[in-house]
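Section 4.2 – Deliverable D4.2 (structural model, holo form)

The reporting period included a commitment to supply a predicted holo structure for the target in complex with flavin-adenine dinucleotide. Inputs used:
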Amino acid sequence: MKKVGIVGAGLAGLVTAALLAKRGNQVVIMERSPILGGRSHVISKNGFTMSYGAHAVLAPKQEPLRSIVRELELPMAYRKASLSKFKLLMNDKVISSPLGFGALTSPAITGLFNHMLCLKQFYRMVKQAPVFPQTMSVGQWIRDHVSNPEIAKVLSAYAALSVYDGALDLYSMNRFVELTAREYEKNEPLSYMGYDVLLEELQKAITKHGGSILCGKLISDLIVEAGQVKGVVCSGERVEFDEVVLNIPPKELSKLLSHPSLADEFAGYASQSAHYVFVYDLMLSKRLRGDIGNLLDLDGGFYVNDYGLNNPSSAPAGGQLLNGLKFLTEQEQLDDTHAKESQTRFEALLNKVYPGWDNYVVSKRIINRAMVNGIARRTNAKLLPLQSRAVRGLYLVGDSTEGSGALGMPCYDSAKKVADLLS
Ligand SMILES: Cc1cc2nc3c(=O)[nH]c(=O)nc-3n(C[C@H](O)[C@H](O)[C@H](O)COP(=O)(O)OP(=O)(O)OC[C@H]3O[C@@H](n4cnc5c(N)ncnc54)[C@H](O)[C@@H]3O)c2cc1C
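Output (structure tokens):
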């Protein structure tokens, strides 16, 4: 039985801990915050329940999530997103999207010939093998291959939504086609579930198999002796482990890299910036409309998820829970100067789509820059090794490690890989 210390109780840390505990290891998870879940932690307010970040489970029937759910016997009650409720906002009007049946009829594209062309380009974009030069971005591919501006706009919006990322010129085309071809082509690409349930079930799985979860534990250093990890430092005290798994984002990681060989190994990774979106969530006491599950604003770059509709247990009866995101440009990501304008523009969108919304506000949550993901998905990204080459017994998990998709997928992927390496 190995004694494994896991630093950080984000999605990846919790999944790793649950798998390792189930497989008979002695697991201790240490989280600096008083609550679990990291960027997937769950907020409950006025009868509404919503995760900070992870809203949609991507491809729940795909590996590795399927095996994780099976091995941990997690009750995953999820709800498939309805394509007929997936809409676009264009020229101030809500229209059907060119996905699914909308492929040949959506007003987003004019003329039958262009509809056919759009469909063809769409399939070309998502069905290719990932064999592009490392520096080829999605934005570049669209510019090189799609000359019709309407089609280019729709495909850019689709790609931006698929990767929650407005910066398509920084997003690798290889990563994108890997994601779409491998995860999205199957019949359940986007599903919703209560993350409160997932987090609770993961905690149960950890404690049921003898693992410990310690909150309010900030880890300030790693103990490395003769090239082998020996433990961590918490509140000035030495806590010994046979193996250590780090589930912490790049900026935090750099604070733990005082050991010279580690600093060299992770320098490129730790110095890279993450990617941010503007978030505007709205809890309403009245359901104003139920025909839109997901809305993509083609001109403004906003994406609205009717979370209460997609995940009914998250809103009280008759209420509506909207989650708005804005894909920020590279410039907007640098600081909060975009905040006022982003808020004004989002409220203008609400006025068009949900008129009268401001009469029913129970609560709002605005995050100027929420960290969606690390850097693994970018062109030229420096991907971490999951297992340190410089220090024996040190592993890394999280959404910034190499994963097979975007968003939370790398968390499941890296957690499973590290659990397999350690078992
Ligand atoms: C607005 C938004 C929307 C999103 N939508 C989706 C979605 O629809 N689907 C999806 O799958 N994903 C989505 N994501 C992404 C998903 O939330 C993240 O990929 C996932 O939560 C990241 O988990 P993680 O384990 O890698 O890291 P984190 O959640 O960042 O966990 C790291 C943990 O480490 C702790 N920590 C850091 N340093 C220390 C230290 N020194 N000592 C102890 N603890 C430490 C932190 O407190 C934190 O709890 C979204 C994210 C955002 C922000």
